[in-house]
Amino acid sequence: MLNMTAVYSRLLIFFLLISLQPVDVHKYLPEWESLDKRPLPQWYNDAKFGIFIHWGVFSVPAYGSEWFWQHWQGDKKANYVQFVEKNYKPGWTYADFARDFTTEFYNPDEWAELFESSGAKYVVLTAKHHEGYTNWPSNVSFNWNSKAVGPNKDLVGMLADSIRRKTNIHFGLYHSLYEWFHPLYLMDQANKFKTNYFVKSKTMPELYELVNTYKPEVVWSDGDWGTGPDYWESKKFIAWLYNDSPVRDSVVTNDRWGVGTMCQHGGVFTCQDRYNPGVIQKHRFENALNIDKNSFGYRREADLSQYLTIEELIKTLAMTVSCNGNLLMNIGPRKDGKISPIYEERLRQMGAWLKVNGEAIYNTQPWKRANDTVSNDIWFTAKEKTVYGILLKWPKTNNLQLGMIQPIQETQVTMLGYQKTLHWQKRGLGGGISIEMPNIPLPLLPNPYAWVLKFEKL
Predict the structure, then answer these.
(1) pLDDT (0 to 100) of residue 30
(2) Can you tell me the distance from the alpha carbon of 110 to that of 96, in angstroms, rounded to the nearest whole number?
(3) What is the Cα–Cα distance from 100 to 334, expressed in whole angstroms?
(4) 3-class DSSP assignment, residue 371
């Protein structure tokens, strides 16, 4: 006969053990109200500066922009049509460009060294642009990928490996949801997006494959226009990304997940390319800035005047970080895998500036105001009780007048990279501070453009 007391005791122990087991409850639901509550990982908030890389079959014609195929055969812009007629044989197709995407000089270790020297804390490589060509051997891109035609390489995997072996930089990937001329996308479009054959057979399999294979810490989505996030199944994917993916704790997303999401939902807001609001934003944003003013991809016809100067780039970095943003500065490698000297120069110049002045950029927060009320060419950041002022123009009289800095007797003013304390005094009735800038030769300054003042004990 069973001892019922013993049976009940065992059942009680059993249920107690079950209650102690971790319950698999998804923290984030596939709804914007839930997804938008996820905080950005701290590494991204601290990073402030990253490198965007646009590279694909469009790097072969290297003319106009990375939208070459659409402008040639979609919009049929005259200059693109004439360019092909003049330089390629009759009957030439966009697919014919792929075999010349040779990447023979692609050395991801060299890329990693260059990106580290730039001071960037993360990189975002184009895994697939709107042309549909994937820079990895995708299981759903058939013969339209970097292993099947062109390089015969896993371009994504090679860079991911080098970045992680050689640097402490975070690795991210750009992915276009749509493709200009994919027949399934065009079918869904013709059906007014009441079907989503393209999403189920192409877009989503690619995204899950990218995340599971390469574990990117940034998933930078694009190409979402035309219809809303329900068609793209965006919310379901982001919920998986935040809850169950191999990068759930560290991944950053953006806001391009369907019509109505940009600048409204997702992780970091991009709002538009080259987004630079000039005033402090409540929600962290990212300024995707192309160094070539006319293109994110490499252009053979570009001349020097069409590239942003280092002064312009540092100004944009200062403004962006002051306003609660990150700068994602774009380069376009050539079809052979080389990064052109103009891009290399800009990256190394930025790195040299950050080596002296990075204290005012990394791990900072916006101050109470982005720039000054008296001298507009100074932008502020803050770190705990310290305020930094990024000065873009040296005052002609060596005397800098600021309205926002209200000093007390113990206030100390220094310049990063310069050893001596700067003399200052309170301004008149309007308040603020008057700073005596050092009267030293230009070669002895810490750098030739943009200087950082450090204010302590305000």
Answers:
(1) 97
(2) 29
(3) 11
(4) strand
**For domain 32-360, which CATH number applies: 3.20.20.80, 3.10.450.50, 2.30.30.280, 1.10.3210.10?**
3.20.20.80
The whole-model pTM stands at 0.93
- What residue has token string 């994602």? 328
Per-domain residue ranges of the chain:
32-360, 378-456
What are the C-alpha distances in Å from 255 to residues 69, 278, 284?
Answer: 25, 20, 11
With contact defined as beta carbons under 8 Å apart, do 353 and 449 qualify?
Answer: yes
Q: Which residue has the tokens 């494959």?
A: 209
Residue type, 282: K
Mean pLDDT, rounded, of the chain:
94
Instruction: Please name the residue ranges forming H helices in 273-389.
Output: 310-322, 341-357
- pLDDT tens for 359-410 read 999 999 999 999 999 998 999 999 999 999 999 999 988 999 999 999 999 9
Task: For 110-161, give the secondary structure using H, E and C.
Answer: HHHHHHHHCCCCEEEEEEECCCCCECCCCCCCCCCECCCCCCCCCHHHHHHH
Pairing of strands 399-402, 433-436: antiparallel
